[in-house]
Fold this sequence. Notes:
By secondary structure, the protein is mainly β. About 5% of the residues lie in helices and about 45% in strands.
Amino acid sequence: MKKIHVYAPTLGVLLALGSASSFAASQPGVFNVSDYSASSPHTDYDMARQAADAYAAQYSWSTGSVLILKPGQNFTCDAVPLPSLGNQSTTSIIGSGSGVSSIVKSPGCSPGAATLRHSDSPNGSLSRGLYQGFTVDANHIDAAACEMYGMSLTSFIDVSCGNAAANADHELEFGNRDANSVGWMDNIYIYSLKTFDSVVPGAGAVLAPVWNGSALSSVRLINGGTSDYTGIYTRAQVFGPDLVTCTSIPTITPMLNTNKKISGAMVNSAGSCASTTHLYIVVQDGTPVTYGMKFSNMADSHAWQLQALGETTYGIAWMMGSNNNSIANEAPNSGELYGMYDNANGNRHLTPVFKNPAGYAAVIWSQNGTVQSPLLTWGNSSYQAVSGYLLGNDRHVYHDWVIKESTCGSTSSANFLPIVTQRGVLSSSNGVPAGARPQNIEACDGTDAIHWQVIQ
Length: 456
């Protein structure tokens, strides 16, 4: 078997993946799940974790411990977080690849906060670790798959987190805004991080609103879908830039036929909207979760290849406090209402790909930051696009936000609006806020027009 050598400076060890057993046998502080047996209700993974965590606690002043996952599923029933020792170390976890090794919540076990969790570090001293080459599957039992708080100089490489319980807040969260600032994440290094939902959603359905003046009178079926809908998780809503003109928002319930395709929608509430030109119906499916990736308090960090799958409300969210991060190739790409949301300052989003956004590709809420060379693309020819970028905060908030070189590839929609503000569609009385600086934004409406063109 080919060896893959990964140097982990936070641990001070050289891990030889592919020869994990011999490595574990020869290195103190390294524990292999394959060497342990289950002891009900604890699984083999749980027993190995107990040993690894105990070693990390005993030697918290040094490198902590390393847990080597076995290939395949590593079931867990315990709800024990990784050790938060307040002494710069914890238990690190290494697998054989996110498509090979997984940590899975055992069916029948009690729900927990997260399947894999590192809690706030005591006394403000942040833990360090390495997490590489595995998937965390909450099995739709736990409230989240991954929650990491109170860490610094920690690396996440080829890690996937998903299958949180229905109506959960997030699949993954890094950092929190606790009162004592011991839950933040600082100088984190991420390469290839993914969130997902294994429930296969329906796709391709297109519904159009029919208005009677300002009220929604009915819903017209344009396309019932190209793949089966779940029914139990299928949802639809009126959405778009003209929602700001609604004194009450219409609500609807999608209906399915016996072939599991959308057959129409029932109007629950007609609502009242002064302008309806830019109002559409968004159909979503799959397990409902608010955030795919939620960075609640992670600063001064580097991330490459973030991929949010699953039809969440927000794909990748940078919350207040997650400042000054460098993010390359993030890809919210599975029908989220808001692909990327940034309410933090100084973040640099380089070459993101917004694929199949159900609503807005990105929501810009903070004072300053950069989105550079983004690509917007979708695969459904009947897609009723909402907008590229929503400047959703008060126009006086923006001081130096740059969105530049935005392109659309070969996709287009006549309804597409490159930029929308808190007040709705751009007009002579609603221009781009002075502190926001769009540069060379392709229209994505089939005209190939470049808006806010900068002459080099």
